[in-house]
Structure formats: structure tokens, C-alpha cells
Amino acid sequence: MAKAYWIATYRSVSDSDALAAYAKLSGPAIIAGGGRILVRGLPALTYEAGLQQRTVVIEFDSVDHAKQVHDSPAYQEALAVLGKGAERDIRIVEGA
């Protein structure tokens, strides 16, 4: 079974307090579900389109595990706290 990667990019953050509250809840929810946070922050370098966006990469044992964590009550609670505090794009991609 291939690993899976949950990749989140933040186009904008309009409420840093909501983002901080989200982080306090989402990290433990993700880790409890077996996720391993590999990357979190702004790019050191950018190429091609050169978008300087906060990026988070989380590794899971499978796409199904990543989906289960995303859909879990604990993570959904974190999302509710974030509300419209950030415009993001989340993708779950199966490893090669």
C-alpha cells in the first residue's frame, strides 16, 4: 500500500488568531490519526510560478487514513474554529 501525502497551501490568512486556534486543534487530531507532519512553513525558495505560500505536507500510511483523519470529528472541529480565517487548498496525493 502506497503512502499518502496531505498537501495544504495557504493562499491567504485573514485571521491569524483563528489560524492559531486551528493549529492547536488540528495538529493533535492529525497526529492521533497517524499523520506525520513533514513540512510546515513558507518556502525557502520558489520556482516556476513562484508563489510564496505557507505550505504543509503530512504523511499518512494510505489515502484512506488521510481521508479518515480529514473527515474525523476532531479535525472537523479544528476546521470549524478556522472558519473563513484562511483561504486554502488541500490535496491528498498517493505516493509514487
Overview features:
4-stranded antiparallel sheet; 3 helices; alpha+beta; 96 residues; Alpha-Beta Plaits
The CATH topology is Alpha-Beta Plaits
Unreliable residue runs: none
Main β-sheet, in a few words?
4 strands, antiparallel
The whole-angstrom Rg is 13 Å
Structural class: alpha+beta
Q: Strands of the biggest beta sheet: in what spatial order?
A: 2-3-1-4
The chain-level mean pLDDT equals 96
* N-end to C-end Cα span: 10 Å
Based on the coordinates given, report the CATH architecture.
Answer: 2-Layer Sandwich
CATH first level: Alpha Beta
Overall geometric form: flat
> What amount of the residues lies in strands?
25-35%
Protein name: DUF1330 domain-containing protein
Domain DUF1330: 3-95
InterPro entries: Dimeric_a/b-barrel, DUF1330
Pfam family, one: DUF1330
Describe the protein in words:
The protein is α+β, with helices and mostly antiparallel strands and 96 residues long. 38% of the residues lie in helices and 33% in strands. The chain is built from three helices and four strands; from the N terminus they run βαββααβ. It has a four-stranded antiparallel β-sheet with strand order 2-3-1-4. The longest helix is centred in the N-terminal third of the chain and has 17 residues, at 16-32.
Topology:
Elements (H helix, E strand, L loop, with lengths): L3 E10 L2 H17 L3 E6 L12 E7 L2 H9 L1 H10 L3 E9 L2
Short note summarizing the structure:
With 96 residues, the chain is α+β, with helices and mostly antiparallel strands. The protein is 38% helix and 33% strand.
